[in-house]
Fold catechol 1,2-dioxygenase.
Amino acid sequence: MTVKIFDTPEVHDFLKTVAGFEQEGGSDRAKQIVHRLLSDLYRLIDDFDVTPEEFWATVSLMNELGKASQFGLLSPGLGFDHYLDMRMDAVDAEAERTGGTPRTIEGPLYVAGAPEAEGFARMDDGSDADSEVMWLTGQVRNLDGEPVPGARVEIWHANAKGGYSHFDPSQSEYNLRRTIIADDEGRYRARSIIPSGYGVPAGSPTDKVLKALGRHGQRPAHIHYFISAPGHQHLTTQINLAGDPYTWDDFAFATREELLVDGRAVNDSAEAEARGLEGPFT
Ligand code: MBD
Ligand code: FE
């Protein structure tokens, strides 16, 4: 038996009461947004004949997500992070702030307070002898192509097992997380290890939601960046190591063509030296 009650004056009045429309205090914006959100959900319950069992199972799942601190992990999986970026891209396009490296999502695994270095940093703690050495070099430039000396380059990424320090108890504090202050030419260099893609923990509440949608929780290998300098817009972005099977199948929808980077093997020590890829190791 199905019933439809949403479009009755009782329900419409009830929603206004619940959203605080009859109260003096509080925030008008909060009232408007909660009113819209509840209206959409009440209507959904009516349209899909959501049962009390289904409703309480969902409440339970949300409690699990909260207990595991996974709302920030489910969020990119449901496309919110990328959608917010699409909106920011549209804002920038409107203001004619175009060109430059595209933004992409921050993700839930940034940790503030990483060690700071000038020009060069070694990012790995040296404990992972099996991983391949990776050099990251670049130059921070403004939209006119001019270098930005002293720009702050924050870099963080996973290890070869896809784990991030702070969240992965097997890693040392701030492993694979550094802040590099760009040199007089806006350049930075880092020595690190090649990361693997990340996977949502199996059996976790986020995994349960993705499984219910027939989806996976894998990300391709990537390296996160924050780039900032006084008087410039903050950039949150990533680079993707090209050739990963998940490049265009990222559960977090963060890949952008312009951010794909082809790693290149440097086997010749003379070339490494010529390109500044040797020490000082800190
Ligand atoms: C990650 O490493 C990440 O970057 C995102 C967006 C989500 C989960 C793990
Ligand atoms: Fe990540």
Summary: Helices lie at 9-18, 28-47, 52-67, 71-77, 80-94, 205-212, 269-274. The two ends are 70 Å apart (CA to CA). The CA atoms of residues 23 and 157 lie 48 Å apart. Residues 9-76 form one domain.
